[in-house]
Amino acid sequence: MKLKPESLQHLLSEAITKADAIALLEKTERLGDRFVCPVQNCDKNYSSKYTLYRHVQTHKAKKPFQCHMCSRSFTLKQYLKDHLYTHTGERPYKCNYPGCNKTYN
């Protein structure tokens, strides 16, 4: 089911709680067992409501987490943290596949 325009507006507002947003996302259109982003012209889909919730945050106008090195702004603190690795060159994440030593940021 597509969200009504007023529901989508509420979802993207700063006033909505995380619990209410996730409950609203439960009602969004599905692609099989995947949750589809309700924002027009966005084709993203996710395996969980929570992951979709995190993605929907990127559509919000307010981006309170700003990089002190380049002034780029982000909707979630984790996105800023991941972005900072592009400046430091740090690659803190390691592949879990046996024998693979690749790292990434």
Total count of domains: 2
**Order of strands across the widest beta sheet?**
1-2-3
Biggest sheet architecture: 3 strands, antiparallel
The helix/strand class is alpha+beta
Q: Portion of residues in helices?
A: 25-40%
Mean pLDDT: 87
Contiguous low-pLDDT stretches (5 residues minimum) are none
Number of separate helices: 4
Query: What's the end-to-end separation, in Å?
Result: 36 Å
The run of helices and strands is HHEEEHEEHEE
Rg, nearest Å? 16 Å
Shape: flat
* Percentage of residues in DSSP E strands: 5-15%
Detailed description of the structure:
The structure is a single chain. The chain is of the alpha+beta class and 105 residues long. The protein has 2 domains: 5-57, no CATH class; 65-104, Double Stranded RNA Binding Domain (2-Layer Sandwich), CATH 3.30.160.60. It has 4 helices and 7 strands. The protein has helices at residues 5-11, 18-25, 49-57, 77-88, and strands at 30-31, 34-36, 45-46, 65-66, 73-74, 93-94, 103-104. The model has no long low-confidence stretch (mean pLDDT 87).
Which features does this protein show?
single chain; 105 residues; alpha+beta; Double Stranded RNA Binding Domain; 2 domains; 3-stranded antiparallel β-sheet; 7 strands; flat
Which secondary structure elements does this structure contain, and how are they paired or packed?
Elements: H1 5-11, H2 18-25, E1 30-31, E2 34-36, E3 45-46, H3 49-57, E4 65-66, E5 73-74, H4 77-88, E6 93-94, E7 103-104
Antiparallel strand pairs: 1-2, 2-3, 4-5, 6-7
